[in-house]
Design a protein that fits this description.
The complex is a heterodimer.
Chain A (H helix, E strand, L loop, with lengths): L14 H4 L12 H9 L9 H4 L6 H9 L3 H9 L5 H7 L6 H4 L11 H14 L15 E5 L3 H12 L3 E5 L8 H4 L8 H13 L3 E3 L10 H6 L2 E6 L5 E2 L12 E3 H10 L17 E5 L3 H12 L4 E5 L11 H9 L3 E3 L2 E8 L5 E14 L5 E5 L5 E4 L2 E4 L3 E2 L3 H4 L25 E3 L2 H4 L4 H23 L1
Parallel strand pairs in A: 1-2, 1-4, 2-3, 4-16, 6-14, 7-8, 7-14, 8-9
Antiparallel strand pairs in A: 5-15, 10-11, 11-12, 11-13
Helix pairs in contact in A: 2-4, 4-5, 5-8, 6-8, 9-18, 13-14
Chain B lengths: L2 E8 L6 E7 L1 H6 L5 E5 L7 E4 L2 E3 L4 E7 L3 H7 L6 E2 L1 E6 L12 E6 L3 H13 L4 E7 L8 H6 L3 E6 L6 E2 L3 H10 L4 E5 L2 H10 L11 E4 L15 E3 L5 E3 H4 L2 E3 L5 H7 L4 H23 L1
Parallel strand pairs in B: 9-10, 9-13, 10-11, 11-12, 13-14
Antiparallel strand pairs in B: 1-2, 1-7, 2-6, 3-4, 3-8, 5-6, 14-17, 15-16
Classes of the chains: A alpha/beta, B alpha/beta.
């Protein structure tokens, strides 16, 4: 077998410099790097990577096209499967999806599929070659999509390609959902998100912002407005708050508030922007997911002197992407594993001052397939801090669900779908975190795609 | 969709209170007493909650009453008839429960909180209730909507801290008298946090007074208004966490731990002051340029 050259490493902003700015950390492949990396692909007859991708992009095909210098055809090929490549190339956990399945990973490092996807998307944007994806002829049937996060955007794009007249209703003043309020600028620049949403506009998708469905309009109003099917992709953004003493001290906030203020409302540019954010000298973040890491890295960039992440399990169980963990370590974020907060202590003005932690050890395997953390008796210790950010998970968004008391939910409070991807209410479909609970961008996109297919089938069977 | 200001007028003589009508037909159609909206005035603005003080479904307008307390409210007061507000989101929160109560309802509005009392008094009055309204303010220039409130009240009492209009003192003085003299079914208090705290304390069954169900309106600091940020959270006295945006804004005043909430509302004070001062300075500079 031919010798496999080493995997190309994506250039990054120097950690010492990037901790003082909100610009993108990973800088993307140069053309030369992309070509070299594409050469590493073995073009397997039975490619495993495609099955590893939740939207089954024809990965060998676009890599082959890169080798042949046909970038335009390559990006077209990706867009047949994935309308948001600039986003996925950046935030998909490729290491547990396509790249994990790559045959090279058995002996060498896998092909940098995500980086190549991003290269093509950025190349298209830089050269302003964006074109409207192929669509079926307009059928003048209206479909509503509620929520403009990854599930909603993908569903809307696919529906538009099927020829439907699609309107997205979004609660915030801008589109993207968690991509804009949750993921920080340095991991996913907001103009990238905006540009991907522009693709939807090219497809004829309409966007209505500031529209909280369940309040300003109900599902019934939408039906009366002539929408033949409705997709619910409102996400899971309600912060879980642990039941510990001291939660109401000032300086204790949810990762959602912290990130929404910073990312969506641009509090990092205060006072140019009006939304404030307060950051202490020592910041502790509780949690081990991407949200915890994002919060910690934002805190650092806002000027915190020391940022500590406390996670109740060990490094191996962290749900955060390895790459982002690595970035956080490089930036000087301190990790305390097997550490759980017990109590938050405050000063005389009710500001957070100190956290009481307890050490944990791993016990038997739990229902998540990970070993359950158990407190170790008499192992309490304190860490001083002046900001505490809670990033321990989220629950289903309540407003739309509350306005639809008849909708069937599972025991965790998420929407239950039937085998056709429909809710128990006729014409109403759903997907993304509001069905699965908190998951990844790409899995929400996969769900949006599945729902679009189901809606297409459903409407066509209804009108024939 | 632009949200155009159709009407703007000053309330009282203080120069700090304004009534603004905004064209927002879809919101007007769904608005009810108790609902609020979130406003973002321009691209760099913050999202802040304002209670819907009135609505006109036919004209497609909602009315807001704004008191200048910081940059965003000052900026809003600088918007004129014909100007567009960038974002208006709503109607948020829960509408109040309207029904006929056996005994009179006391509705207490403090300062700018007088405004949201109006739709509540109106809808409860229309449901056949007897309404006793108490309007409180620091001084007579800050009292407004006496006429509107008179029209929907069976009795109207005004208090000012300095005695320049109505009774001298706080809203709790006439409330105490009412509670000791007659049977009251419900007390509604909307105004400064400290006023709501004191009203809730007075109706909690102290000093030989009867315990009376009391609703307070929590207009806390929030970002999204849909239950996602948790900025508006407040603890009840049993330690449970509640979100004002989706459980409120009107909640049982006897369960709220006001001391914690009063402290929580201070968490951005230094930033609010900085923002306010910078904007006032900017306004002065602009005025200076205009003069030259």
């Amino acid at each position: 077998m031919a010798k496999i050259p080493p995997r190309q490493k994506m250039p990054e902003q120097d950690p010492n410099i990037r901790i003082d700015n909100f610009e993108e950390v990973a800088l993307g492949f140069t053309e030369e790097m992309a070509k070299k990396e594409a050469e590493r692909c073995l073009q397997c007859d039975e490619p495993k990577c495609v099955n590893g991708c939740p939207v089954n992009i024809d990965i060998p095909k676009f890599i082959k096209l890169i080798k042949e210098n046909d970038y335009l055809e390559a990006i077209r090929s990706i867009k047949e499967y994935n309308i948001l490549p600039a986003i996925c190339g950046r935030v998909c956990p490729q290491e547990i999806q396509c790249e994990k399945a790559c045959i090279l990973s058995k002996k060498w490092e896998p092909v940098a599929i995500g980086a190549l996807e991003r290269f093509l998307a950025d190349w298209e944007l830089k050269n302003q070659l964006k074109e409207c994806p192929d669509c079926q002829a307009p059928n003048n049937i209206k479909v509503a999509v509620i929520g403009s996060g990854p599930a909603g955007l993908t569903c809307a794009a696919d529906l538009a390609k099927y020829g439907f007249e699609v309107t997205i209703f979004e609660a915030f003043h801008t589109g993207g959902g968690v991509l804009v309020y949750g993921i920080p600028e340095f991991r996913l620049p907001k103009d990238i998100v905006e540009n991907e949403i522009d693709t939807l506009k090219m497809l004829g998708v309409k966007t209505e912002y500031n529209m909280i469905i369940g309040k300003i309009l109900t599902i019934n109003d939408l039906k009366n407005m002539g929408f033949m099917a409705i997709f619910i992709g409102v996400g899971a953004g309600v912060p879980l708050i642990p039941k510990i003493l001291g939660l109401n001290l000032n300086g204790v906030l949810t990762a959602n508030e912290f990130l929404t203020r910073t990312n969506l409302m641009k509090a990092y540019k205060f006072p140019e922007y009006d939304t404030p954010i307060k950051i202490g000298e020592i910041v502790i973040v509780i949690g081990g997911g991407n949200t915890a890491l994002d919060s910690a890295r934002v805190a650092l960039r806002l000027g915190a002197e020391k940022v500590i992440i406390a996670y109740r399990r060990s490094e191996a169980e962290m749900p955060a992407r390895k790459e982002e963990y690595h970035h956080a370590v490089e930036e000087g974020i301190e990790f305390k594993f097997l550490t759980n907060p017990v109590k938050i202590l405050g000063d005389k003005d009710s500001n957070v001052k100190e956290i009481d932690f307890i050490k944990m050890e791993l016990g038997e395997y739990d229902e998540s397939g990970r070993r359950r953390p158990i407190p170790i008796e008499n192992s309490e210790f304190k860490i001083k801090c002046d900001t505490l950010i809670l990033a321990i998970g989220t629950l289903a968004n309540p407003i739309l669900i509350k306005s639809l008391p008849e909708i069937k939910l599972n025991k965790r409070g998420y929407i239950q779908l039937d085998e056709n991807g429909m809710t128990n209410i006729e014409d109403i479909f759903a997907g993304g975190d509001i069905v699965s609970g908190s998951a990844t961008v790409i899995s929400a996109m996969g769900a949006g795609r599945k729902a679009a297919k189901a809606i297409n089938r459903y409407i066509k069977s209804k009108i024939h | 969709m632009p949200y155009k200001i159709l009407k703007k007028k000053q309330l009282g003589k203080s120069g700090t209170l304004f009534e603004i009508d905004i064209h927002a037909p879809l919101i007007a159609k769904k608005a009810n007493a108790g609902n609020f909206i979130l406003v973002r005035i321009n691209e760099k603005g913050e999202r802040f909650p304002l209670t819907i003080a009135n609505y006109n479904r036919q004209k497609g307008t909602i009315t807001l009453v704004v008191q200048i307390v910081g940059k965003s409210t000052l900026l809003l007061s600088h918007q004129e008839k014909g100007d567009d507000i960038l974002d208006v989101v709503g109607p948020l929160g829960n509408k109040i429960h309207i029904k006929k109560y056996e005994n009179p309802i006391v509705i207490i509005g403090g300062g700018v909180g007088i405004a949201p009392c109006y739709p509540q008094a109106k809808e409860l009055k229309e449901a056949g209730n007897t309404i006793i309204s108490i309007l409180g303010a620091r001084t007579k220039d800050l009292v407004f909507w006496q006429d509107k409130m008179t029209a929907v009240s069976d009795k109207l009492i005004i208090t000012t801290n300095d005695g320049s209009e109505g009774m001298k003192g706080f809203v709790t003085n006439p409330l105490k008298k009412l509670l000791s003299e007659e049977k009251i079914s419900l007390v509604i208090a909307i105004g400064p946090m400290i006023m709501m705290k004191n009203v809730a304390l007075m109706t909690s069954g102290i000093e030989g007074l009867p315990r009376v169900k009391t609703l307070v309106s929590l207009n806390t600091i929030m970002v999204d208004g849909t239950g996602m940020c948790g900025g508006c959270r407040f603890p009840s006295k049993d330690g449970e966490i509640h979100f004002a945006c989706v459980e409120g804004p009107d909640v049982d005043g006897h369960m709220v731990d006001f001391d914690i909430l009063l402290n929580r509302e201070k968490r951005f004070t230094e930033f609010e002051k900085k923002s306010f001062d910078l904007y006032k300075q900017e306004c002065r500079v602009l005025k200076g340029i205009e003069k030259n």
